[in-house]
TrEMBL record:
InterPro entries attached to this UniProt entry: SAK_HAD
One of the record's GO cellular component terms: box C/D methylation guide snoRNP complex
Protein name, as recorded: Swiss Army Knife RNA repair protein HAD domain-containing protein
Stretch list, region Disordered: 412-540
Annotated organism of origin: Letharia columbiana
Swiss Army Knife RNA repair protein HAD domain location: 56-262
Length: 562
């Protein structure tokens, strides 16, 4: 019998006497394996599941806008709990459970951690525990199958129950994990050390603080337990981001939305919408690499200060309306181009002038001449490329010929349905992008206090832009983000724009308070995300620092990654 802290019924952190036995400890595990005798165990090794041992898929930040990345992971936004509470998301990992289980989810493991688990299992005096905040009800069977496929024989597999063995209720995943750890070290009172492998810095700190306090309590004169202090080592694991196939992910989110809408009686239905940033002649990655060889920044200029693009020749900002789209051949039309000139503006903006092949081809661009924005310094505006007047001829070996495909730069977003909104209007994200701190209307929302806000997993790696449009401008890479209120159509076909004619499309960019993809999520606020982390019970910010094409939804656009 020892005095322990519990967050069960009654005041939080109320001290009460709890019995620590093997039988009681085993109730935490959804594994039927018998636990070794207390006097046999000298070390406790605890492994987190998501993004520590197993690279669980995260919402794709290239596929969804930043608000949606956070929204998908917010439990209160979906009747069925969202991304981290829907087992079908985890089942869809890789090629799906039916194909992945026979090959043990190859490629989805952190193999270094797998090796460490294997070493822990082989040590006769070590208890090996898998500890995750995923719910026992939804994920116990699936996670046991995933682990068994890799032949990892944990002594305990612990998932978050609705209530603990002593009817404890947990306001956060951290509190649940601390309750298990406390029971673990008190039950195996002869263990000298505990090692915890965890990918989240906030949880790493939480565990370290917990054991510092735990050992201090053991040394206090009021201690009611004979246990000696334990050596606690919390190992920070570098997370590795993986995502689902974009088509599968879109389908799974649509299914999740359908399930939500069928059960949600209190709020507006949700739907997936597309945001079209620009329409352009999209350049394949192989040709992008070739075009970037034209860029020669100053030797003293750090490469990290340069944004490399070379991914499109602008047609118009936003979605192109039918007359303009028909003129350029429609979505998917192939157009060949040849590099005819090169220019650098103040050694901060680099562009390649191009001409259609054959020269009589009908084309359109909102820029003053057709060009590819190759790169720009982080302090320069892509739109400055339109200031270039003096194009230098390129040598014959640099007159690259490449093929483009008419397509759209798109991201998806999840929003409540808007009554009376046309399909065309839905292509613009008209919401205020000043980081709303509450999710869109959905089911009745639970307002959590600060104790619950500890599951913030954010996608690692800062700004990953190697393509797309980052800032305002007409320089081939100046796509305008959604979220602005006034939409001006792109100009129609004017003199010198290839092919003649005077159509005035309405498919252009947005005017007013412009924000680019780089602007969204910069500075403070909830949506300034840098890492991706499972969120089992609380709101999670999303990241906005990605920028790529992906599957169209009821409209044009290139397949993801093409």
């Amino acid at each position: 019998m020892t005095a322990s802290f519990t967050n069960g019924p009654g005041p939080m952190n109320q001290r009460k006497v709890v019995s620590h036995t093997l039988t009681g400890l085993k109730r935490w595990s959804c594994h039927s394996r018998e636990l070794p005798p207390v006097d046999q165990v000298k070390a406790l090794h605890v492994y987190d599941f998501d993004n520590t041992l197993f690279m669980s898929p995260l919402p794709n930040q290239k596929l969804w806008n930043g608000q949606t990345v956070g929204f998908l992971q917010t439990q209160e936004c979906f009747v069925n709990g969202g991304w981290w509470h829907d087992q079908r998301i985890l089942e869809a990992t890789g090629q799906g459970i039916e194909k992945e289980e026979p090959k043990a989810w190859e490629g989805w493991w952190n193999e270094q951690i797998v090796d460490l688990v294997g070493l822990s299992i082989k040590q006769n005096d070590t208890l090996t525990i898998l500890l995750t905040g995923r719910s026992e009800h939804n994920f116990a069977d699936l996670i046991k199958r995933i682990v068994a496929s890799k032949d990892l024989s944990f002594d305990m597999i612990c998932l978050k129950p609705q209530a603990g063995p002593n009817s404890e209720r947990f306001r956060s995943t951290m509190m649940y994990k601390q309750a298990i750890l406390e029971d673990l070290v008190h039950t195996y009172k002869d263990a000298d050390e505990i090692r915890i492998y965890e990918d989240r810095p906030k949880h790493t700190k939480g565990f370290r603080d917990f054991f510092e306090s735990f050992n201090a309590n053991l040394l206090s004169p009021a201690a009611q337990t004979p246990r000696k202090p334990i050596v606690a080592e919390v190992i920070q694991v570098a997370d590795q981001v993986k995502t689902l196939d974009p088509v599968v992910e879109t389908s799974e989110v649509q299914r999740m939305i359908n399930s939500h809408n069928s059960q949600n009686k209190a709020g507006r239905n949700l739907e997936i919408k597309r945001t079209v940033f620009y329409t352009g002649y999209l350049i394949a990655p192989m040709d992008t690499a070739k075009l970037l060889t034209l860029v020669k920044p100053h030797p003293n200029m750090p490469e990290t200060d340069v944004k490399f693009l070379a991914n499109n020749i602008l047609i118009t900002f936003g979605p192109a309306q039918s007359p303009l789209l028909n003129k350029v051949g429609g979505i998917g039309f192939k157009q060949t181009w040849q590099v005819t000139g090169f220019a650098s503006l103040d050694s901060k903006v680099w562009a390649a002038r191009v001409s259609p092949v054959p020269p009589i081809s009908i084309f359109h661009t909102d820029n003053h001449v057709p060009f590819v924005l190759l790169a720009h310094h982080k302090t320069a505006r892509p739109g400055d490329a339109n200031r270039i007047q003096n194009w230098q001829p390129v040598s014959a070996d640099k007159q690259y010929v490449f093929q483009t495909t008419v397509g759209e730069k798109v991201q998806l977003r999840v929003e409540p349905e808007t009554e009376g909104e046309s399909e065309y209007d839905s292509l613009f994200d008209r919401r205020n992008l000043k980081r709303r701190h509450s999710p869109p209307p959905g089911p009745q929302q639970i307002h959590r206090n600060g104790h619950g806000n500890d599951e913030n997993r954010r996608l690692n790696g800062g700004n990953g832009n190697r393509g797309g449009t980052q800032n305002r401008g007409r320089g081939g890479g100046g796509g305008r983000s959604g979220g602005n209120n006034n939409n001006r159509g792109g100009r129609g076909v004017g003199p010198g724009r290839g092919g003649g004619g005077h159509n005035r499309g309405r498919g252009g960019g947005q005017r007013g308070a412009y924000k680019s993809l780089d602007d969204v999520g910069s500075g403070g606020g909830r949506y300034n995300a840098q890492r991706g982390e499972p969120n089992y019970d609380d709101y999670v910010p999303g990241g906005d620092n990605y920028n790529a094409a992906f599957p169209a939804l009821g409209g044009g656009g290139l397949p993801y990654g093409k």
